[in-house]
Amino acid sequence: MNFFFVLNGKSLKNISLILIAAFFTAWFLYIENLPQIPVFSTNDGPKAIYRGEKDLALTFNIGWGDEKAVPILDTLKKGNVKSATFFLAGSWAERHPDIVSRIVKEGYEIGVLGYGYEDYKDLEDVKIGRDIAKAQEVFKKLNVKDVKLLRAPTGHFDERTLQIAKRYGYTVVHWSVDSKDWNNPGAGKIAENVKKANKGDIVLLHASDSAKQTAKAIPMILGDIRQKGLKLVSVSEMIANGEAHSKEIK
Questions:
Q1: Is the pLDDT of residue 109 over 80?
Q2: Is the Cα dihedral 206, 208, 213, 215 positive or negative?
Q3: Between the CA of residue 76 and those of 8, 33, 66, 106, 147, what are the distances in Å?
Q4: 1 to 4, 31, 32, 199: CA distances (angstroms)
Q5: What are phi and psi of 86, to 5 degrees?
Q6: Domain containing residue 126: CATH number
Q7: How far apart are CA 188 and CA 181, in angstroms?
Q8: Is 142 within a domain?
Q9: pLDDT, tens digit, for every residue of 212-250?
Q10: Residue 124: domain span
Q11: How do residues 126-144 score in pLDDT, each as one tens digit?
Q12: Residue 207 and residue 213: Cα distance in Å, rounded?
């Protein structure tokens, strides 16, 4: 015996509404059970991280030089600093494998500062990708693992940089507080520039040879941070431990 169901237009409409409601209910339940997606992973494209919600991150750029990185590492060790992020140019890293190894052994995070010190805003897309890929290869050879952060070598970048970095698996990190140590205004002035840093800030410092006074400024910087009761973390820890803030680049 065959059974036939005859549905009028109104019944079909009701069934369609029920199916649509069921689909969206299931979807929302699925989304709620996913890990929280950081703010830089958005539907309208990648953004550059410039600060977090809590804690404080000290970041050091190294693009060139042979003399200042080790004294800065010595000063951080003496100051019992367990977390910091070093953005290293690939060209510098391949010439200083022992210092790179020390940075890793002392528990600090490594990010990419490109390979050569070039302004990404002045480069064609293919050359930006080539520079990032070349740096990536250096860190692989040095057995530096889990490198997920990238900082534009000169600090200048645009939407193209964000998109290309994303393709290579990197998140672009800027900063919210500039120590201006590269200008060598005096250790006290560098510390004063960083003094405005508070929870959630990412501080820019340098460990290239151009930063002649940074090592002397670090004890003063650490004293102020501890007086404020702030915890030092790596950039990745800051992103993971709280909401990250980003700026959209046009």
A1: yes
A2: positive
A3: 76, 40, 18, 10, 21
A4: 10, 45, 46, 75
A5: -110, 120
A6: 3.20.20.370
A7: 10
A8: yes
A9: 999 999 999 999 999 999 999 999 999 986 555 655 544
A10: 48-247
A11: 999 999 999 999 999 999 9
A12: 10
